[in-house]
Amino acid sequence: SWEVNNPTQLQTVLSALNTIKTSFNSKNGDKQVSLADLIVLGGNAAVEKAASAAGYTNLSVPFTSGRVDATQADTDIENFEILRPQADGFRNFRNSTGWSVASTEALLVDKAQQLTLTAPELTVLVGGLRSLGANYDGSFNGILTNKVGTFSNDFFVNLLDMSTVWTVDSTNEIFTGSDRSTGAQKWKATRADLLFGSHAELRAISELYSEVGGQDQMVVDFAAAWAKVMDLDRYDVKKR
Q: Which intervals hold domain Plant heme peroxidase family profile (predicted)?
């Protein structure tokens, strides 16, 4: 029921996946599927669909089954409450009622460290997720593309576009990107997004993906980084 998980939307999705799980397991004897595996499979399918829409019809996101589902009885609710996210830069979420001494971008980097991500993996995951429109609550912050749902490097191209000037609002969290010549508003972005233009190392990686041909490498790197995150803590899976 955490805000970051969009509880209403989450219930709809979980209901659909549980229906699939029940139907599959009732027909396949010893071959059973867990809800955890279906969640990952659903994400993989979304990535492959977005890649296919961009012309990458042969992309196959690695998947290894074997996850199991925890029950409510297995869950220590009080201890889990400590894990409630105050921010999730991967989905451009920031809890406005929460408290944290850390900046939005620092919390993103901290989460990336917890996920054992390298700087290139962090960069490609954020850029790819923005092209998929995978933001919290359908927000358009950081969605720097006109073709949401189609995998692209538009996030990097438009973030680094020198014809765009960025100005921050009164919260010091949301930025408006406007045409430098006409003043026309083009984009909205957060501190987590602009990190990839302001931090020297992350900007260098972003420039690589923004180049002509950079999207081809980006889609491969995204699939690999995505699979890595999906297999974190899988002691039974050989690390790629």
A: 2-210
